[in-house]
Amino acid sequence: MNALEPRRRWWPRSVRARAALAAASAAAVVLVGIGWWVHRDVYRQSMDTTTAQAQEQLWGLVGQLEQGVAPDDRSALPYEIVATGRRSSVAHSFVMDGFDSGTRHVLPAPPVAGQPEWNIRTVRMPARHDDVYGSADLSDRTFRAMTADVEARALGHAKAAALGVTDDARLRVYVVLAPQAAEAVVTTADGLLLRAGIAGLVLIAAVAYTATRLALRPVEAIRARTASVTATDPRERVDVPDTGDEIAALATTINVTLQRLDDAAIQQRRFVADAAHELRSPLTTLLASLEVALAYPERTDWPAATTTAARQTRRLQALAEDLLLLARLDARVPVARPATVDVAALASRLTEQYPLADSPLSLTCDSTGPAFVHGNRNELERLLRNLVGNAVRHAAEHILITVRNQGGWVVTTVHDDGPGVPAGDAERIFERFTRLDDARSRDSGGTGLGLAIARDLARCHHGTLTLTGRTPGACFLLRLPEVPSPGGE
Hints:
This protein has helices at 15-66, 157-163, 180-227, 246-295, 302-330, 343-353, 377-394, 450-460; strands spanning 79-83, 91-92, 118-124, 142-151, 170-176, 339-342, 362-367, 372-375, 398-406, 409-416, 464-468, 475-481. By secondary structure, the protein is an alpha+beta fold. Among the domains are: 70-178, no CATH class; 246-329, Helix Hairpins (Orthogonal Bundle); 335-481, Heat Shock Protein 90, CATH 3.30.565.10. A hairpin with a 7-residue loop joins strand 1 (79-83) and strand 2 (91-92). The longest helix has 52 residues, at 15-66. It is rod-shaped and about 160 Å long. Its EC number is 2.7.13.3. This is histidine kinase. It catalyses: ATP + protein L-histidine = ADP + protein N-phospho-L-histidine.
């Protein structure tokens, strides 16, 4: 068999057929158990009836002996009456004729000594191959038999002589508990149970198949509708049945998933369009300056052209790096080389090193002590740098960074005294390539990705980044889970 071919399984591929097979298998196990219990119970009750019948027959035979009358050979159960000192039986049922040659009894005679007994004992019937009066059913088998002993002297001489035994003989009456009647009843019951069981299994399998088919009909409709969804057009939705069951929940979940795919597709198309637009602006400026320089080389201010080309190249480089970082964040790549980082020290160092030489702005940091979090130092620094860079572009005079430990969190704020952000744009500013009306200049503004990258980095570190309602200006609130200091203090 080819290793690439799927392994063939014995069970059917159809869910309907598998459900019917499973239901029929479970029902078969239950029915077999019930059938076995019924078989045993019917056999037990039949044997109880046989035992009661044997006891009644035994005392009837003893009563006839006490009257000095030899019983006839017609009886419900096989019996034999034997006596000490006599080779042939005193009396027996016609079934025993198949074993009794007329000169010797089949079952053993009672002992001469000892007290008379009434007992249930085990007897072994001799083998016989020909069926004489039904004796083949008893041939070479072991049965239980009820026995009762009768003393001839208690009967009197006349009755003992009538029975053909001496006055000192002991007679034993055997009534064999033959199970033929019970076995016949059980055989009949087994046949009825077998036919009823087969009919029940067929009915259960048919009902399970039909019920599963009806239950899966909405699933088939969902499958057909979902098959029409494509990556370029995920706007199709499935119908949600009003049954309120698991299938309705499945349809709702599929619709929610399709909506997320639709939103992701829209966001991706918008992101691609915005990225192309952002890339086209510096590329157009760079290409125009280079074409003018090449067309009029003798009149070109080459230092200025080179400066323009370098500035636009740096913009392209920054935009490409931001796009690559966003792609990594979208792929949910784990935090690289996590470590314990002091956010307070990170913010203080950024305040000292941030380039504000040509700006009238002041940048200060206020912290109460070390504030440790678990994460990547470079990524956390990038997060803070993006927040500070956004504040620098909008602040009027002053930017304040605060770091505090509050209730198991490291809370960092970046507050500027600029014009602030309208309440309706509090979430929109975290979208990619978003610039508010007063920050449209691409030469002085950023790429429109800084705040989006900052929020994604905060989420990667199990934190949050929001815009608070603090005034004047804009205040960004960063919350990261606090961890113990590396020294265990």
